[in-house]
Amino acid sequence: MSKETEVDQSNNNDAVDSGANEAEQTGSVSNEEIEQELLEEEQISETEQLQQQVTEANDQVLRVQAEMQNVRRRVERDVENAHKYALDKFSADLLPVVDNLERALSSISADDEGQKAVAEGIELTLKSFVDVLARFKIEPVDPAGQPFDANLHQAVSMVPNPDLEPNTVMDVFQKGYTLNGRLIRPAMVIVSKAS
């Protein structure tokens, strides 16, 4: 072999070696790029997962806040009702006393001078009792002459009466009472019906 051939072959070997080195570098750059892309995808995936978790956590916090607000409102309403209707049973037990005082007044003869002082005493007692009831929002339901209302009245009987419209309260046996608008006791009434 001549020197020229050796130099050409040496140049060829160098060219092959440099091509191989370039191919190796290109291959390793490609692997690095692929690894970099995989890392970026993993980071994006992790970021999306974290964002989803944050969104779910925010949603859960909003639900808990709404539930707490509902519980607070419910408790406030229950406390308000407890204050409003605390006297419900107590007032229902006092109503027979008012009924008895009214019956006592109606049974006393207005003409008898001996009972006049007793009647005045019962009348004053009844008035003060009714005033106390009114102060605590206990109101009477006296529906004489009004249309029958099943929510406030209890019909004891129905009597034919051509002078009144059907379902009109003719007479009241016993007054009803409400506490802050809530019925404690219905009025016991006689209702007219068509003849």
From TrEMBL:
Family: Belongs to the GrpE family.
GO molecular function: adenyl-nucleotide exchange factor activity; protein homodimerization activity; protein-folding chaperone binding; unfolded protein binding
Organism (species): gamma proteobacterium HTCC2207
SUPFAM superfamilies: Coiled-coil domain of nucleotide exchange factor GrpE, Head domain of nucleotide exchange factor GrpE
Record's compositionally biased regions (Acidic residues): 32-45
Record region (Disordered): 1-53
Protein name per its UniProtKB record: Protein GrpE
CDD domains according to UniProt: GrpE
Record-linked PROSITE patterns: GRPE (PS01071)
GO cellular component term, pick one: cytosol
Gene from which this protein is expressed: grpE
Quaternary structure note: Homodimer.
InterPro entries according to UniProt: GrpE, GrpE_CC, GrpE_head
Any single GO BP term: protein folding
Function, as annotated: Participates actively in the response to hyperosmotic and heat shock by preventing the aggregation of stress-denatured proteins, in association with DnaK and GrpE. It is the nucleotide exchange factor for DnaK and may function as a thermosensor. Unfolded proteins bind initially to DnaJ; upon interaction with the DnaJ-bound protein, DnaK hydrolyzes its bound ATP, resulting in the formation of a stable complex. GrpE releases ADP from DnaK; ATP binding to DnaK triggers the release of the substrate protein, thus completing the reaction cycle.
